[in-house]
Structure formats: C-alpha cells, structure tokens
Amino acid sequence: MRHLLAIRDLAQAELQALVARGLALREGATPAKAQGAIATVFYEDSTRTRLSFQQAGALLGLHHLSISTEGSSIQKGESVEDTLRTVAALGARVAAVRSPWGLSLQALTDLPIQLVNAGDGWAQHPTQAIADLIAVKREFGEMQGRTLLIVGDILHSRVARSNAEGFRALGARVLLAGPPTLLPPGLAQGLGAEEVQLEEGLRQADVCMVLRLQRERQERGYLPSIAEYRRLWGLTAARAALLHEGAVILHPGPQNRDVEIDDELVAAPQSRIAEQITSGVYGRAAVLEAMLDAH
Ligand code: ASP
After folding, report:
1. What superfamily in CATH does domain 7-126+278-292 come from?
2. Would you kindly state where each structural domain of the chain is located, as residue ranges?
3. Section 225-250 average pLDDT
4. What is the DSSP code (8-state) at residue 140?
5. Spacing, Cα 295 to ligand 1 middle (Å)
6. Which of 8, 79, 160, 182 holds its CA 20 to 30 A away from the CA of 210?
7. What spacing in Å lies between the alpha carbon of 222 and ligand 1's midpoint?
C-alpha cells in the first residue's frame, strides 16, 4: 500500500486485514519496527488525529516531524508540494496530511513521500473509520448483521462518509438520520445507506455514532438555531434510552456537549468514545506498518 487516501481505495480483504491487525496491536501484539520519520502536515486543527499518528509512529520506532499552518513557512506562502518535499528531505517517509480541501491529495501522489489522508474537507477520513471499526470489532466481533446509525451533520462529515463505506464494506447495515439540510436527498443512497427517522434508527442500532455539529462549516444557514438542533437531533439521555441494551455510543470528537450529545452520555457506560481514541493509535500503527512494509 503506497498511499491511503480513501476507504474505497481498499479492497475488502485489505480493510479487513488492517482492522484485524489494529485490533491485535490494541490487544498486545508487538508492533513491527520501521526506520525514519512520520510527518504530520496539518492545514486544519486537530487533537486526536495528530497525536494518535504521533503515538502510532512511536510504536513503530519512527521519529515525528510536526508541521501546521501556524508557525511554519506555510505562513510565507510555501506550497503543499514544497512543504511535503521539505519533510521528505528531512527524513519523513510518510506524511499524514489534514486539509480543508476535499480529495486534494490525489494530485500529490507522485511526490517522493507516501501519503495518508488525515481528514480532507468533507470528503474522507479513512483512519478514523479504521479506528471506529476496531472499537466496534472489539465490542461485537464481526460487523456482519450489525447496524450502525450515524446521526447529525452528515453533509459536512468526512467521518460519516468514510465510516459508511467502511462499515458497509465489512457487512454492516448503515442508517443515517439528520436534518434535511444536513442530509440532502441522494446522500444516503450514494453511500449505500438508508435514511431513517432518528427514533426508529435508535431502536435498531447496535452502534450509534453521533457527529459533531460542524459549526465552522455552517456558513449557509443550514439550521434555525443550536437549541433547535439539540431539541430535534441531539442524542439526549431520553433518546439514548431507546437504544437496546448492549448498544454502544461513538463520537469522533471533539464533542459539543449538550448540543449533539448530552454531557452525561459522553462518559456513560455505553459510551466507547475513549475506546475510539485508543483504537485510533493502533489502527494508525497498522496502516503505517502496511504502508512502510514494516516487519
Ligand atoms: N475530528 C473529526 C474530524 O476531524 C470529527 C470532527 O471534527 O467533527 O473529522
């Protein structure tokens, strides 16, 4: 695997293998060793993704070069290409790139560095899906016969796109619920998912994934108000009571507490939000092993 740009670029068996390897690492398998460095090149803010790439690299013995818009020559107008050439010349073999520009990495795949998409605009966030698949596999074993409900701001969510593709590829049913402005006609179908009423979806779900309301991308007046969003679409404690016993709650973070998810649910017994973060380290380590062909 030279680059990882989107979940759909992986054959089912490759995705299956990455998830299985990530889970094995999560449960104590010894990571392979690799030489050199990983660069995190971030044109958008991040906490979990950047740090988990750093942690994953450390598991394999990679040094970490970190660059972001603030405090780098990106401020002086240096291009993405030149930034990637620079980190490659400094010893990075792989760059985890986060950007607000959907699918932009495709144009950069001929540079002398391997690329992993760390989230690009609304388009894809493949390592988040791998993290979430590991957390769910740990909980339920196989995806086959399981139902994933994704709730909220689907339109702006690269997490929803990657997860819908990943869970579908491994045999789960994917349901989507959200306000019509944030779940426009055709979107569910395009992702091989079914659109449902929120309450109905909650009754059917084994996994309820709540998305962050992406306030920074709400410029076009998609919502009457935050309070209205919470009232109609928030995972409140009352709505969470519709989930069956054994169902789990996920959220890719960061949470807007008491907007899309009630404060008390974030660390409730059915929450696997912390597990998603931990699984993310091991999933990314599995991806780096595969990309670097580490033994
Ligand atoms: N942290 C995730 C991402 O970067 C989810 C979010 O920001 O809403 O896509």
Report:
1. Aspartate/ornithine carbamoyltransferase (3.40.50.1370)
2. 7-126+278-292, 127-276
3. 96
4. H
5. 31
6. 8
7. 18
Testing ligand 1's pocket by substitution, the residue of 159, 213, 259 carrying the most ligand atoms inside 8 A of its CB is 159
Q: How far is the CA of 156 from the centre of ligand 1 (A)?
A: 10
Q: Dump pLDDT digits (tens) for 145-158.
A: 999 999 999 999 99
Ligand 1-lining residues (CB < 6 angstroms):
119, 125, 158-159, 212, 214, 252-253
User: CA 69, CA 41: separation in Å to the nearest integer?
Assistant: 8
Find, among 196, 192, 295, 208, the residue nearest to 249 by Cα. 208
Average pLDDT score, the chain:
95
With 0.90 as the threshold, say if the pTM is over it. yes
Q: How many angstroms separate the CA atoms of 207 and 38, rounded? A: 32
- Asked whether 16 and 135 are in contact (CB, 8 A), the reply is no
